[in-house]
Amino acid sequence: MSQQIRCRAIIEMLGAPKEYIDQTLREYVKKLKDEGKSIVSERYEEAIPQDKLFSNFVELELAFEKPAELLSFCFESMPSSVEIVEPEALAMASHDLTGLLCDLQARLHEVDMVYKTLNAKYAALNANATNVFFNFVKQVLAAGPKTHEELSKIVGVEEKELLPFLKEMMKNNAIRAEDGKFVLVLKA
Description:
Strand content: 25-35%
CATH architecture of the largest domain: 2-Layer Sandwich
Number of domains: 2
Structural class: alpha+beta
Shape: elongated
Largest sheet: 5 strands, antiparallel
Order of helices and strands: EHEEEHEHHHEE
Distance between the termini: 81 Å
Number of helices: 5
Radius of gyration: 27 Å
CATH class of the largest domain: Alpha Beta
CATH topology of the largest domain: Alpha-Beta Plaits
């Protein structure tokens, strides 16, 4: 026996300019309708500024025939909140729940794999960028000793952000501090 599931969901968006985020949110709701989602009601809020962006949301009331449809909507639309309005209690066959749990696990594994892949790419990119930056500082110092301030101006990194890199380079004996200036350590 199938029982319709009615829920309230809030979908939020952040962007700029204000008119664009308003229009994009309305177009997204239209897309949901075009895909066959049963939207019972929709209530849009006025976009509010957040730094240089605007935040906006819509509260939707939706109806789903199956719990799997609700779960799919949650994964695809990523609402910030979902509240089941009715029925008050859901009865579900164990094989249906098993299917939902398997789908949930598959999606979680997919997200986990994307996260791990991006994390590995970030680590490699960060290591490469650090090496390029270290080489840049070495090239600058090859022309002669420089103060912290001089290095900051040449490499285009603020003094407070440059200091940890310089400390790491000193720890690795690539440079040393001498008379208030940084000097390249020449390796034999």
